[in-house]
Amino acid sequence: MAAVPQSEHTRRTALKRHVLFIHGGGERVREADKKLAASLRDALGATYDVRYPEMPDADRPEYEIWKDQIAEELSTLDGDVTLVGHSLGGSILLKYLSEEEVEKPVTGMFLLASPCWGAEDWEVGEYELQKDFASKLPEGLLVFLYHSRDDEVVPFAHLALYEAKLSQATVRKFDGRGHQFGDDLSEVAKDIREVVSTVNDQTEERRRAMNDRAGELNRLVEDWANAELAGDTDFLRATLADDFVGVGPLGFMLTKEQWVGRFAGGLSYESFALNEVDVRTYVEAVIVTCRQKQAGGFQGNDVGGEFRATLVLVKQEGRWLLAGWHASPIAGAPSFLNR
């Protein structure tokens, strides 16, 4: 009976979710924003790690210096990160994500009372966004905007300016919360938890899909090995791609019809097994490497042996087909590898 060993090792580690909170400009604001960060930390609970770095020169913030600090903070975090910015901190985060190459996966960006630089009386060139900034944000980025109508620092009208440019954003409008949101970010925490939960669900769906795909491919390889052992030409004819090419251990090449015709020509196996199977998946192709051990004969000749085989699978019209097979004799490692 053909054998294709299968094994799956799943390790799950409970990691805290990282949240990077960038405060506003000005020493007094930095101190005041500590209460916002504390509120967010309390509302999110112990499963979240809320980072609140003190940004340099808060009274005279320079974008380039803050940009470098943000990059440094992100480099210290493992896995996904949620970005939260208040006032100037939010606008700098938005500029950073739209202008820099960010390798860290960003779960979502949550901007609190952020000024729209370039608006009347808010013209500061180094903070202003590029005209096409929205199209340069990471694909699929979830953006949330928060603003209170009685904001005494950043006019509420700035929210509408962002709304017009960020059509994908979720907008939360408040009454009576001021620029500091009454030191209460419970609504923001609720949104963050929902976004993280959604991302987790999507990740789990992708993981299940990958597992399903791996199972399907392993079954196909096992079925192919069984068909070779049994000489099941109907299965082989249905499973090999029309342009299939088989390359034997001596360099000969067989087309699909020639491969299927081997059995009519006298090929028979006593055993046919695959071991050390490794499956690498790509978008519409799969590479399988394995150790192929077989015993059998062809027109009086012994075709037994052990080979290192490579199978190429492609997806055509919704079905996985075997497009190529190549086998090489297994010999000892070349001497230069032992030096």
Explain this structure to me?
By secondary structure, the protein is α/β, with parallel strands linked by helices. It has two domains: 17-203, Alpha/Beta hydrolase fold, catalytic domain (Rossmann fold, 3-Layer(aba) Sandwich); 231-338, Nuclear Transport Factor 2, Chain: A (Roll). Helix content is 32%, strand content 29%. The chain is built from seven helices and 13 strands. It has helices spanning 27-44, 63-75, 88-99, 157-165, 186-230, 233-239, 256-261; strands spanning 17-22, 48-51, 81-86, 106-112, 143-148, 170-174, 240-247, 253-254, 267-281, 285-298, 301-302, 305-316, 319-329. Helix 4 links the parallel strand 5 and strand 6. The longest helix has 45 residues, at 186-230. It is elongated, with a radius of gyration of 30 Å. It starts with 16 loop residues before the first strand and ends in a 10-residue tail after the last strand.
